[in-house]
Design a protein that fits this description.
Blueprint (H helix, E strand, L loop, with lengths): L1 H6 L2 H31 L4 H4 L6 H23 L5 H25 L3 H23 L18 H9 L5 H25 L13
Length: 203
């Protein structure tokens, strides 16, 4: 069967269609393992989990970019003058930006861009899930050495009266992230390629 795949040129076609999925798969699996260990072992696994090379570089870049986006969300949503929206704005923007990228890439028929944007959305959901899972213990280090009173998701859950349900909500966020990862990996399965045909019609 493998010989038939190579001889018929289907291997090259398969690689062309699925190469991004194959590159994303290890990162996705490590990200899922990280959030699983954060939930089942200790929330600080979100900080101390070791991604293998070269995915540790990818994680470093996307984590810090996502952090910048989170902080920008606080700044942007502060214009509404509402403290709750200001606090929630960081996580909202983390999810809104990759969603905008997905819509842009899908509309413009960028398959790889759509996959990467979906993976970024999945990562953002995992990040929000980890932050929410820390709402009661508040053990994660906050940017700028802020105190525990500045913990976004502790304040959000207290405001909504949902602090007792923080773990279930955090798990739900992680499941949504997992679905985004799955969608990113399976994009080539549902993606239809269209060949451009140029028609010169002289009337």
């Amino acid at each position: 069967m493998i010989r038939d795949l190579v001889d018929s040129g289907k291997l090259a076609e398969f690689a062309k269609k699925w190469w991004c999925t194959l590159l994303l798969l290890p990162f996705v699996l490590m990200s899922i393992q990280q959030i699983w260990q954060a939930f089942s072992v200790h929330v600080l696994m979100l900080v101390y989990y070791d991604y293998t090379f070269p995915y540790n570089i990818v994680y470093f870049l996307i984590f810090h970019f996502d952090l910048i986006v989170h902080e920008a969300g606080h700044t942007f949503f502060s214009i509404f003058g509402n403290r709750f929206i200001h606090i929630l704005g960081g996580s909202i923007y983390q999810l809104l930006l990759p969603l905008i990228l997905i819509i842009f890439c899908w509309y413009n028929r960028y398959r790889v861009g759509t996959q990467l944007s979906l993976a970024y959305l999945g990562f953002s959901w995992m990040s929000v899930a980890g932050y929410a899972a820390d709402a009661a213990g508040r053990q994660l280090p906050l940017i700028g050495n802020l105190g525990k009173e500045a913990h976004d998701w502790h304040n959000i859950f207290v405001h909504l009266g949902l602090l007792d349900s923080y773990r279930g909500i955090a798990i739900s966020f992680a499941l949504i992230g997992g679905l985004c990862y799955l969608a990113a990996l399976l994009v080539p399965l549902f993606w239809e390629e269209y060949e451009e045909v140029r028609l010169d019609i002289k009337i």
